[in-house]
Write a structure and sequence with these properties.
Structural class: alpha+beta
Number of helices: 12
Largest sheet: 4 strands, antiparallel
Order of helices and strands: HHHHHHEEHEEHHEEHEEHH
Helix content: 40-55%
Number of strands: 8
Strand content: 15-25%
Length: 278
């Protein structure tokens, strides 16, 4: 069947392959068998040397289909939330690298993400001096398609400067649980009052406020840090308890450390109405 393709089609197949498109997609577009793609690509100009070397060195060009396929599952929304606040995507040669790094205490979350996306890459460790002596544990993946796959969800290079969660995520408690696990905080202050907060871009904090307002009616607004470009939303007392319950008292993945803390706090809190604040 490959002999029926024009020279232009073979060249286009080579361009698609070198840009990171999967063989199955190329085969579907051209109406050929997936097993014929390598021959067509070779006849169309072949694999670029830098692409070949990158794939040989990094173990292939990874695809995030389990994470980004629509419709998004609740689990996918959670992991997108964690990546949105604590992941990093950046240019790496001809493609992109995506990494998720957490304190060693939260190794189970990195392992959970790796399992969810069906990756086989090794989780690495590195020393970190500002986490009480804890190592950082991180997973790093490489692909030429990460930027296109993750951009609709607001996960972009330099996202901490200016980014906004994708519209399909803004009302999801699973997404916001992931975001809090990545760059939020919760607990009891010295006066035994509940608190919960999230730091991020102005747009992200405004979206989190809209979510919180929809379930609590809170009028507490995000504020800008005095000497930085970051913003944060901080809730306290009953409003914090309602949001804490909405995020953590439900099935689905969560950072064990924060979920355990949240449920422990809620178990001793008497300020919620069992019927109204569910």
């Amino acid at each position: 069947m490959a002999t029926r393709l024009t020279v232009e089609q073979r060249q286009e197949a080579a361009r698609w392959y070198n840009a990171g498109m999967r063989s199955e997609e190329i085969a579907s577009r051209l109406g050929i068998r997936p097993g014929s793609v390598s021959k067509v690509v070779k006849e169309g100009g072949g694999v670029l040397p830098e692409v070949r070397e990158a794939r040989k060195r990094r173990g292939g060009s990874y695809d995030l289909a389990p994470l980004v396929s629509m419709p998004l599952s609740p689990e996918a929304k959670y992991w997108l939330g964690l990546l949105y606040t604590d992941g990093c995507i950046c240019r790496q040669g001809i493609g992109w690298s995506l990494s998720l790094g957490l304190a060693e205490t939260d190794l189970a979350s990195v392992e959970g993400f790796r399992s969810f996306i069906k990756a086989e890459q090794k989780i690495h460790r590195r020393k970190q001096t500002n986490l009480g002596g804890q190592d950082i544990v991180y997973l790093r993946l490489y692909s030429t398609v990460f930027a296109d796959q993750l951009a609709p969800f607001g996960i972009v290079p330099q996202k901490s400067v200016s980014s906004r969660p994708g519209e399909m995520l803004r009302e999801s408690p699973d997404f916001w649980r992931g975001a809090i696990d990545g760059n939020g905080w919760l607990g009891l202050d010295v006066r035994n009052r509940l608190f919960l907060g999230l730091a991020g871009t102005k747009d992200a904090c405004k979206d989190f406020w809209a979510f919180c307002h929809s379930i609590t009616g809170t009028e507490t607004r995000p504020t800008k840090a005095a000497h930085a470009e970051s913003w944060s939303l901080k809730l306290s007392c009953r409003n914090a308890a309602i949001v804490m319950k909405a995020l953590y008292d439900r099935p689905g993945p969560a950072m064990a450390r924060k979920q355990g803390k949240a449920l422990g706090i809620l178990s001793g809190y008497r300020g919620l109405d069992a019927n109204r604040d569910r």
